[in-house]
Amino acid sequence: MHVVVPVLHRPSKPTGVCRHAVNLALCLSETEPIECVTLVIGDWQKTYFSTAFDLTSPKINIVSVSIKNRTLTRNLWYLRGLPQLVNSLQPDIVHLSFPIPFVRSRFQAPVVATIHDLYPYECPDNFGYPQVWFNQCFLKQCIRASDGLACVSQCTLGTLKTYFPNAPDHKKVDVIYNVVEFSQASPERPHQLTSHNNGPLLMTVAQHRKNKNLDLLIQAFSALIQAGQVKPNSRLVLVGSTGPETEALHSLVESLQLTTNVMFLSGLKDEELKWLYSQADLFIIPSSTEGFCLPLVEAMTFSCPAVCSDIPVFREVGDTRCRYFTLNENAKNNLVEAMAAELNNSRKREPYTETRFSREAIAHRLLHFYQSL
User: What are the tens digits of pLDDT across the range 338-366?
Assistant: First the structure.
């Protein structure tokens, strides 16, 4: 079986979508029925696909497309160029790593789309107006045109049914979790971190969007320092690509006089993320809504203590391994208390034994899903 995974999109540094596509390719390449997985990327993505990920499997092929990295150009290519390329490759399945606008009749093979979230409907402020109208239109078109929809969590499936109640009646829909496994490469300290102070190292991984509540995290971190619950030289590392909230977050850090404590990083390699997860004293994710939250499970695989907002998807993914806090009018105080309690917790890091997100488990579900189409 030959699977084509388009992952051509705007960012010039690794993102969650890239990591999903790479993990998809890696888990499929380890199964006998899969003869080839072709990743389709843009020319501007070649550098980080060759340096940030381990794609040495002989079954994984990378096709680079030379077009302008502009919104209109990319969307026109999805509609015209992608079907031409895919049909020339003659795959058995096309698996869209994220929703894109496309015309189903132009593809000879069945098309599957991963549905990570319904943010254009749930969190329109993430995109702004009128941009969000295009995002909603493209997501709606992709959901309607796909032969199958792979939702990354039960919560995402539930949200899909809320906004598109008829979708499961007209196409194959299933929950297929994200693969969460790192390469065997050794951890590598990010070069931006020249030293590791004696104070706790706290971290999160999230794009600078409103639903991530990174401002709440920064305020809670400041409160911890002011109350003397962590050392003055403690660090908070925010890993994630820029977004609509970036400017406001930097301004908040400056106003709280935390410029030496808070560090913004993006585009890290797997090795660098592994170092952070293994060295961090605490991982915090205070989102108001999520589709799956790959970073949370990555942190858990390294047994990094985690504090999460008490939302359904984190309960689904994190189960009893996380400490939860309530998002209400006292959210900052709730978060401060949860962070302090977890930092003072003396329990040892327990080995992570969860198999729901392993390559073997996800590959089995993917193959069954593909074969049903």
Answer: 999 999 987 667 777 788 998 899 999 99
Q: Which of 127, 117, 122, 120 is nearest to 178 (CA)?
A: 117
- What b/e sequence results for 250-276 when a residue is b if at least 16 CB atoms lie within 10 Å of its CB, and e otherwise? eebbeebebeebbbbbbbbbbbbbbbb
Return d(Cα 291, Cα 154) in angstroms, integer. Answer: 9
d(CA 316, CA 311): 9
Cβ neighbour number for residue 77 with a 10 Å cutoff? 20
CB contact at 8 A, 218 and 237: no
Structure-block tokens of residue 177 = 């979790």
Dist. CA 92–CA 148, nearest whole Å = 14
Distance in angstroms (rounded) separating the CA atoms of residues 23 and 178: 8
User: Residue 155: in which H helix or E strand, if any?
Assistant: helix 154-163
Q: Which helix (H) or strand (E) holds 203?
A: strand 201-205
Q: How far, CA to CA in Å, does 262 sit from each of 131, 250, 289?
A: 30, 9, 24
Q: Where are the beta strands (DSSP E) in 222-288?
A: 235-239, 262-265, 282-285
Q: What is the pTM of this model?
A: 0.88
SS3 245: coil
